[in-house]
Amino acid sequence: QVILPSQNSSIIMFKLSLLLSFLALFNVSNGEIVGWQLQESQLPYAPITMFAGDTITFQYPGENIDVYLHPSGSCNDTGAELVGAGGAGNATYTFKDSQIDTNVTFACQYWNYCEMFGMIIDVLVLEPPPSSSPTSAPSKTAAPTMPAPTAAPVVGSTPPPTAAEGAPDTPTNRGIETESGAASTGAAVSLLLSAFVLLM
Fold first, then answer.
1. Pairing mode, if any, of strands 90-94 and 120-126?
2. For 67-104, how does the pLDDT look when each residue is reduced to its tens digit (9 = 90+)?
């Protein structure tokens, strides 16, 4: 199948429209301007999300375009409320607290623009976020004053007793030296016996 350049452009525009519609699902603003006109894709406008108290503005040219609030949520004009008459050029609507957590639908009632050219849009109205006014910082409570630690008394070091001149070594030291000498003598005897055995 051969795709003509005009067909290729239409496919690209259609895909772009779908992408923009998807991104609009995550759009939350405090004011929205809608270019109110016939949709080339013939698809409805992508739904948007706004807060109660926000204002939506419709901008449109010509005498044959108007804006109505449709309680039906569709192109059905039962109970419709006029927002902007044909030829006005623009129309505004401010969302009410009573509309929180509801979908508000706007549509064009001229001829079959709603059904055939996508001139219908849904707005999900949310509760406004709490104001972000800064709050006063909590006062700091002074920490209780702790008494300064008392320095421990300094105990003077007592030098070890010095041995008197000419005093004999203590019995403990003498015993260690005697055992060391006996061990040395035993080692020498062992070496001599080993040498003697090797020579035989």
1. unpaired
2. 999 999 999 999 999 999 999 999 999 999 999 999 99
